[in-house]
Amino acid sequence: MGNLELSFTHSFYMPKRRIERIAAVISIVSFGGSMIFGAVQAVSSVNQAEEIPPAVASTESSSVSLPKSEMQAQAREYEIVLKSEPNNQIALEGLLKIRMQAQDRKGAIQPLDKLIKLNPNKQEYKTLLAQLKQEVSKGNR
Question: Using an 8 Å Cβ cutoff, are 47 and 71 in contact?
Answer without folding.
Answer: no
